[in-house]
């Protein structure tokens, strides 16, 4: 499961690893959108936070202060945002459609991290996907795949 999430992030933000700059416009936008999805249902769970931190930690070799700097930059950007557009514009401009599709999959993994999907979370991802230019069919396929991964996680943890 974790390898799947890591591969999502590899697909969405590119880069080669720890030598990359820790805080980039694309990474901050990605973290900010992850935060918005986490908060959509009114509760941010430790499982949701762990997925975001673990993905950025593993993919980019960020630990401690370096990881915190990126997560805090995403938090600040998200708190100052008035909508999704400022973040989706960055991702749409910088990432090919395959990476944007994979990013929507990561967002669904965040939703299912706590075992529940709310209508608000569904709507938030629909809106983000739309702004990213991700087609409805792809969004649904990413949701179905995330549901499957969540079931597999629960089975492994049982």
UniProtKB/TrEMBL annotation:
Pfam families in alphabetical order: TerB
InterPro entries on file: DjlA_N, TerB-like
UniProt xrefs under Gene3D superfamilies: TerB-like
SUPFAM superfamilies named in the record: TerB-like
Domain Co-chaperone DjlA N-terminal: 28-141
Protein name, entry field: Tellurite resistance protein B-like protein
Organism: Rhizobium aquaticum
């Amino acid at each position: 499961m974790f390898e799947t999430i890591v591969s999502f992030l590899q697909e969405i933000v590119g880069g080669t690893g720890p030598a990359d700059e820790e805080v980039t416009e694309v990474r901050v936008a990605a973290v900010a959108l992850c935060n918005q999805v986490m908060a959509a249902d009114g509760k941010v769970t430790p499982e949701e936070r762990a997925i975001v931190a673990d993905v950025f930690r593993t993919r980019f070799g960020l630990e401690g202060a370096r990881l915190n700097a990126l997560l805090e930059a995403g938090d600040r950007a998200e708190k100052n945002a008035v909508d999704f557009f400022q973040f989706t514009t960055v991702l749409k401009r910088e990432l090919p459609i395959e990476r944007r599709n994979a990013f929507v999959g990561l967002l669904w993994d965040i939703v299912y991290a706590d075992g529940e999907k709310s209508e608000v979370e569904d709507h938030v991802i629909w809106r983000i996907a739309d702004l990213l230019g991700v087609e409805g069919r792809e969004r649904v396929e990413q949701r179905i795949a995330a549901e499957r991964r969540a079931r597999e996680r629960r089975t492994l943890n049982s």
